[in-house]
Write a structure and sequence with these properties.
- By secondary structure, the chain is mainly alpha-helical.
- The chain has helices at residues 2-18, 27-51, 55-72, 84-89, 95-106, 116-152.
- It has one domain (2-152).
- Helix content is 75%, strand content 0%.
- Helix 1 (2-18) crosses helix 2 (27-51).
- 18% of the residues are buried.
Length: 153
């Protein structure tokens, strides 16, 4: 999470300035966005890391799912043109609120109040992922404990 935050600061701060990208940046809002987005993605990564039994499987899933996740995020075309079920599914991944919030803060200079829905969505996703992470970890530890008890008997 911290490494992603540092990279995000480089991206929003120096890289845009270096390449003279036109923007109406809200730097304070962008930093606040990064402070919420990075832990959300890191928590999702931890959750998926516990779910996959093999490290290699996670890369296979990432390669397979990254393009569809980008397409349902609402960035390449209007999200209201997606089928209704995909309009609901797209809010389960952090890219949906992140892309829209990031573009509005960085390119349009939107205030935090104007993109509050994106912040609320990211906070809700973080809380959801964290609760699932705790539940999954608790279930894993219970299985390991019961397995150890059965071996001793």
């Amino acid at each position: 999470s911290m490494l992603s935050f540092i990279i995000g600061c480089f991206y929003y701060g120096w890289a845009f300035e270096l390449h003279h990208y036109p923007r109406g940046q809200n730097m304070a809002g962008s930093l606040l966005f990064l402070l919420l987005f990075c832990p959300t993605v890191a928590t999702l990564g931890c959750l998926l890391g516990l779910w996959f039994r093999q490290r290699e499987r996670s890369m296979q899933i990432l390669i397979f799912s990254s393009l569809p996740l980008f397409f349902i995020s609402g960035y390449p075309w209007p999200a209201d043109q997606l089928p209704e079920i995909l309009q609901l599914v797209r809010w389960l991944v952090p890219t949906t609120p992140a892309i829209n919030t990031s573009v509005q803060l960085n390119q349009m200079g939107a205030s935090v109040a104007q993109v509050a829905i994106g912040f609320y969505a990211l906070a809700g996703l973080w809380a959801f992922y964290f609760a699932l992470l705790l539940l999954f970890r608790w279930r894993t530890s219970q299985k390991q404990l019961s397995h150890k008890v059965s071996i001793k008997m």
